[in-house]
Amino acid sequence: MACDTEYTWRPTPAQGHTGTSDQHDHDPPGPVVKAPPRVQHLTRAQMWRALVQLDPAATTPGIAPVDLVVVTGGEPMMRQDVIHDLALRAAATGRSVEIETNATIAPGPALLTAGVWFNASPKLANSAVPERKRIKAEAITALQRSGRTRWKFVVTSPDDLQEIDQLQRQFGLSEVWLSPEGTNAQAIAQRMPWMAQAALARGWHLTTREHVLIWGNEHGR
Questions:
Q1: What is the pLDDT of residue 218?
Q2: C-beta contacts of 30-39 below 8 A and 24+ residues apart
Q3: So what's the pLDDT on residue 13?
Q4: Distance of alpha carbon 219 from alpha carbon 48, whole angstroms
Q5: What is the full DSSP assignment across 37-66?
Q6: Tens digit of each residue's pLDDT (9 = 90 or more) over 11-57
Q7: pLDDT at res. 36
Q8: Which tens digits make up the pLDDT trace of 161-190?
Q9: Phi then psi for 178, rounded to 5 degrees?
Q10: All residues at 6 or more sequence positions from 157 whose CB lies less than 8 Å from its CB, including other chains
Q11: What's the Cα-to-Cα distance from 200 to each of 25, 28, 46, rounded to whole Å?
Q12: What are the b/e assignments for 173-187, b being 16+ CB within 10 Å?
């Protein structure tokens, strides 16, 4: 899925660099990790059938069916028509839909009436994206007004907390979550203590990166 905001947390030499073939002239020294081509073009009906088949309950009787479909990207809000269709199909089977978004595109009326939830994660200055590209007042305001948005910020240092404070004051963000940036358990463990103190002091929430704690930086999980 496409994304409307290019960003990167600059990798250390140990982490390597991810890029595509047309970026090689600009890559820093070090290995380039290429994702295998796995693009499939599906109709909306085919997409829904494929999602249902991923549910363990589809093949294992007695297991409770998955009741939440999470749409991530890229930037899913670039295809609100597709997500709207997905939300209607999900609702018809007793499932909910949550969209992970960078909060740069406002949800349209159809998507709001479909009852989806939003996990909005605006990029902070630590992402190296210019502010004019990552902070879109109209989109953030619309998401907050929906009453169906949780705000999650990827944190790298205590300096990020001041920026989150400012965004909460400016837009009245009602439910703020902090998540540590990190591709290994050690980096996450180092950040969690002071992040926990900050969350407690401000009435925010704290989440970790369970997939990294379990599988490290292994792709495909």
A1: 84
A2: 35/219
A3: 40
A4: 24
A5: P------HHHHHHHHHHHSGGGTSTTSPPP
A6: 444 444 333 333 433 444 445 555 566 777 889 999 999 999 999 99
A7: 60
A8: 999 999 999 999 999 999 999 999 999 999
A9: -105, 140
A10: 126
A11: 46, 39, 45
A12: beebbbbbbbbeeeb
Work out the pLDDT band at 9, boundaries 50, 70, 90.
very low
- The answer to whether the CB of 106 falls within 8 A of the CB of 143 is yes
**Distances in whole angstroms, Cα of residue 6 to Cα of each of 104, 112, 127, 129:** 12, 26, 9, 7
Rounded Cα distance between 21 and 152, Å, is 32
Q: Do the Cβ atoms of 127 and 6 come closer than 8 Å?
A: no
What are 90-110's pLDDT values in tens digits? 999 999 999 999 999 999 999
DSSP string computed for 131-165: HHHH--HHHHHHHHHTT-EEEEEEESSTHHHHHHH
Task: Report, as an integer, the average pLDDT of 145-164.
Answer: 97
- Greater confidence (1 vs 31) lies with 1
Whole-number Å distance between alpha carbons of 208 and 191: 10
* Beta-bridge partners for 152: 177
193: Cβ contacts below 8 Å, ≥ 6 apart: none
**Residue ranges in 55-135 assigned as alpha helix (H):** 80-92, 109-113, 131-134
User: pTM (2 decimals)?
Assistant: 0.80
| Residues written for the chain | 221
